[in-house]
Amino acid sequence: MKYLEEFSDPELAARLLDDIRATVTRPWALMEVCGGQTHSIIRHGIDQLLPEQIEMIHGPGCPVCVTPLEIIDKALEIASRPGVIFCSFGDMLRVPGSGRDLFRVKSAGADVRVVYSPLDALNLARDNPDRQVVFFGIGFETTAPPNAMTVYQAKRQGIENFSLLVSHVRVPPAIRAIMESPSCRVQGFLAAGHVCSVMGTAEYPELAERYRVPIVVTGFEPLDILEGIRRTVRQLEAGRHELENAYPRAVPAEGNPAARAMLADVFEVTDRAWRGIGVIPGSGWRLSQAYRDYDAECRFDVGDMHTAESATCRSGEVLQGLIKPHECEAFGTECTPRNPLGATMVSSEGACAAYYSYRRLATPTVRAGASPRVPAGV
Amino acid sequence: MTLDITGWVCPLPLRDSPTIVMGHGGGGAMSAELIHHLFLPALAPAAGATQVLADLGDSAVVGVAGMRLAMSTDSYVVRPMFFPGGSIGDLAVNGTVNDIAMSGAAPLYLTAGFILEEGTAVEVVGRVAEAMGVAARTAGVTVVTGDTKVVDAGHGDGVYVTTAGVGFVPAGVDIGPSRARPGDVVIVSGAIGMHGIAVMSVRDGLEFESQIRSDTAALHGLVAAMIEPDDDGVRPGVRVLRDPTRGGLAASLNEIAAASGVGVDVVERSVPVPAHVANACGFLGLDPWYVANEGKLVAFVAPEDAADVLERMRAHPLGAEAAVIGECVEEHPGMVVAHTAFGATRVVDLPIGEQLPRIC
Questions:
Q1: Do the domain assignments include residue B29?
Q2: Co-location of B190 and B290 in the same domain
Q3: Do residues B151 and B196 share a domain?
């Protein structure tokens, strides 16, 4: 826990910023992949402090944001069924489906519960054998292993009233999709540190080589992010495009072998739709054949539900880094965290919500010594 | 009489929820919407009568026979009922005492209403009542009337408590949420986030080991010390007091910025956040500025009196860690802006509903 304080030191941050300023000679567009990094960048104002030549493009790495509308609607349908206890992480509850969210469904009488660990949902199933307990398994490579563990344990312990609504996604295919998009402007990536702490770094050298982009594995505290940016800019200025690990305190090259083994057993790779982006080949996981009985989509027969996305919401372009949140016409007017049109406005990791929360000040003037006065002698 | 929702005089309709959702109780934007669009119009006084409710202070100040009285009421539904550092009984007394104290009043009398669920252990009700008695005697207030109702099993959750209180506002004290002026200094009485994290540390499904205890305490003694007249009979310029409970420091600062029409600039690093609170918030994905407190206050003080008030606060046991955290400005009225440790700025928004733990 001491890392929280140490990796937020303003003096060290100033030194990293000096190094970045001294290194950069031309404009560069970098993408931070993970929503946690976006949140940290905006919250601490890191993008305001970078030299003008460096543009941060916010990537698609918010698990809430990229979960497709269709899956949300399936969740709402399943949660509304009698006898179901529907369990979810907290920040999925406010994500709008077609006209409702899980809060409304709960308010209308559904048994929707926020759990903090997926295994709590399994315990609920064990304690309520006459109810069907469903866990909403969304997220990247980070949340996938504990969610896989629930199904693994359910099968081992014979808990048959438990199922998983799966919408897991993987980062490397998304990087590939971004780089192959004709409008791509990204010249370097800060890879998501916690994803790599599970999966390791083996998937990335090939991407760096094929698309000739530096990829730097980066953490989440302010100094981590500045170091990731510094290393990416150094590579770009030197004409290099390699994988670097700037987050070695959490990321060994091999990742977490136990977690990877669990993923390989419980899940298999599948094509997956990303909200606002569309289907990315091989970008998701579904339950493998051995665990298919625990798939909530089959158990509740919602596999055929299909829904369309909002025509106004431009979250897809935001998620691909094509526009900044405030460049969307609906931003802050039709679309606010209170009434989100798209998921990027819901989760605190969503780029639109981060901009809305922290950047509505029309002219965020940053001046040296512009801090509020503190009375003398106090 | 049925309520005619088509006749509401709302600048905006209750937009999108035909039913009450948990966020309406979160102390943020959804709570404010419910109050402004439903309760204020419905409970408006008769034409010509003095409008007090709309001031939306922690307590209301009313004139009675030439005296000024502060009144407040609050309901307590905290789960679990017993947590490190206190219980629902402590909150029921201290919370209402504090609401009265935020008008600068000396709290005198409390009422106590109990809604008990059929099947609740009498021992539990006894522990809650005992805690209330101890807290009231410690605070020097008297519970003078009460009420008990029992609801069918399943129609309540053990024990709910509602208290109301009345206090006396001394002459020359004029404290309210709309009194802040540009230049005022913002002071917080101590470390934030402790109550909310203490409760979360024992909440079902989330138990984690923590050394954090709720900060529940009655603050009227601290307030009295802050506003006591000096040797010349002059009271320091304490303009606004708020106890940042639900919605935390962020909600209180936003409410005052809106009520007073001023901007509030806060120096992020000057806000006292204990390491244990920061760490717990770190792994839960919460922001300590939005976490509830039950024994802290935020004061907006005239700049010329700020050093004096801070000194008085630090001399009191409940204000020993008081700190200046920012100031009121003319720019960005109604908005709270934090200056980060790195020299950047960000808007500190009113929370929407409840804070939701993040996925990862």
A1: no
A2: yes
A3: no
Contacts of B29 in chain A (CB under 8 A): 338
Residue of A nearest to B326 (CA): A372
CATH code for the domain in which residue B96 is found: 3.30.1330.10
Locate the DSSP E strands across A288-344: none
Task: Using CA coordinates, name the residue in chain B closest to A143.
Answer: B360
How far is A5 from chain B, CA to nearest CA, in Å?
9
Beta bridge partners of B150: B116
Q: Would you kindly state where each structural domain of chain A is located, as residue ranges?
A: 28-358
Distance CA B195, CA B192 (A): 8
Question: Which chain A residues are closer than 8 Å to B282 by Cβ?
Answer: 1, 4
Residues in chain A within 8 Å Cβ distance of B327: 372-374
DSSP states along B179-235: ---TTPEEEE-S--SHHHHHHHTTSTT--------------HHHHHHHH---TTSPP
The domain boundary, picked from B136, B168, B200, lies at B168
Q: Which two tokens stand for residue A333?
A: 């007017």
- Same domain (yes/no): B222, B140: no
Report chain A's terminal Cα–Cα distance, integer Å. 30
Helix, strand, coil percentages (3-state) for chain B, rounded to 5, are 30, 25, 45
B102 plus B158 within the same structural domain? yes
CATH number of A28-358: 3.40.50.11740
B207 and B312 housed in the same domain: yes
Q: How far is B289 from chain A (nearest CA, A)?
A: 13
Across the interface, which of A120, A348, A361 has its CB nearest the CB of B335?
A: A361
Answer yes or no: do B359 and A89 touch at CB < 8 A.
yes
**pLDDT tens-place values along chain B, 360 residues long:** 333 333 333 223 334 567 888 878 877 777 888 898 889 999 999 988 888 888 888 899 999 999 999 999 999 999 899 999 999 999 999 999 999 999 999 999 999 999 999 999 999 999 999 999 999 999 999 999 999 999 999 999 999 999 999 999 999 999 999 999 999 999 999 999 999 999 988 886 667 777 889 999 999 999 999 999 999 999 999 999 999 998 899 999 999 999 999 999 999 999 999 999 998 888 787 899 999 999 999 999 999 999 999 999 999 999 999 999 999 999 999 999 999 988 899 989 877 666 655 554
Contact B278 A4 (CB under 8 A): yes
- Return the half-sphere exposure (C-beta side, CA atoms, 13 A cut-off) of residue A272: 27
- Domain containing B338 — which CATH number? 3.90.650.10
The ipTM value here is 0.76
If asked whether residues B193 and B342 sit together in one domain, one would say: yes
Task: Looking at the structure, tell me whether residues B158 and B225 fall in a common domain.
Answer: no
Domain boundary among B137, B168, B199: B168
The verdict on B191 and B312 lying in the same domain is yes
Task: Determine, for residues A364 and B307 on separate chains, whether the beta-carbon distance falls below 8 Å.
Answer: no
Q: Does residue B355 fall inside a structural domain? A: no
Q: Does B15 touch chain A (CB under 8 A)?
A: yes
Question: Which residues span the domain enclosing B70?
Answer: 56-168
For residue B244, tell me if it sits in a domain.
yes
Pairing, β B159-168 against β B142-151: unpaired
Nearest to B349 by CA among A12, A360, A138: A360
Q: At A6, which amino acid appears?
A: E
* Number of folded domains that form chain B: 2
Question: Is B315 within the bounds of a domain?
Answer: yes
pTM: 0.84
DSSP B298-359: EEEE-GGGHHHHHHHHHTSGGGTT-EEEEEEESSSTT-EEEE-TTS-EEEEPPP-SS-----
Contact between A371 and B339 under an 8 Å Cβ cutoff? The reply is yes
Which residues on A lie below 8 Å from B275 (Cβ)? 1, 5
Q: Which of A1, A89, A338 sits opposite B352 (nearest CB)?
A: A338
